[in-house]
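Design request, tokens follow.
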């Protein structure tokens, strides 16, 4: 996953606002040389000029940790962020997915079973 893709991950509901920032980050990414933290901040500041977006290198920690945890393990995300405890990473950095499994089939079967159980009883009362 590239730096440009992380911009989209950290704030999905405002994707349109990040088109200019994505383009600028793509230009920076093309250089692909190691950077000092100060240089990263400077280049990020240059990339967001004129976009009206406030983003710092720290803002990338959450989407990066989430992707590392999804693609590998929470332990790897914890190590990457330098945390001593996986709980810190899970509580503050890994985005929770609130997607429940599709249980409609199971629920339908339970309803059908309940209806089948009630049918003989209602026929007895007639």
């Amino acid at each position: 996953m590239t730096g440009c893709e992380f911009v989209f991950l950290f704030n999905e509901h405002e994707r349109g606002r990040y088109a200019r920032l994505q383009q600028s980050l793509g230009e920076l990414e093309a250089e692909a040389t190691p950077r000092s933290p100060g240089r990263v901040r400077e280049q990020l500041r240059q990339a967001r000029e004129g976009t009206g977006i406030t983003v710092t290198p720290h803002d990338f920690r959450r989407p990066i940790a989430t992707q590392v945890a999804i693609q590998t393990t929470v332990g790897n995300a914890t190590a990457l962020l330098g945390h001593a405890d996986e709980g810190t990473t899970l509580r503050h950095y890994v985005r929770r997915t609130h997607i429940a499994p599709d249980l409609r089939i199971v629920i339908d079967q339970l309803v059908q079973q309940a209806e089948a159980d009630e049918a003989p009883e209602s026929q007895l009362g007639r």
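Comment from the thread starter after seeing the answer: thanks! Residues 1 and 20 are 19 Å apart (CA to CA).
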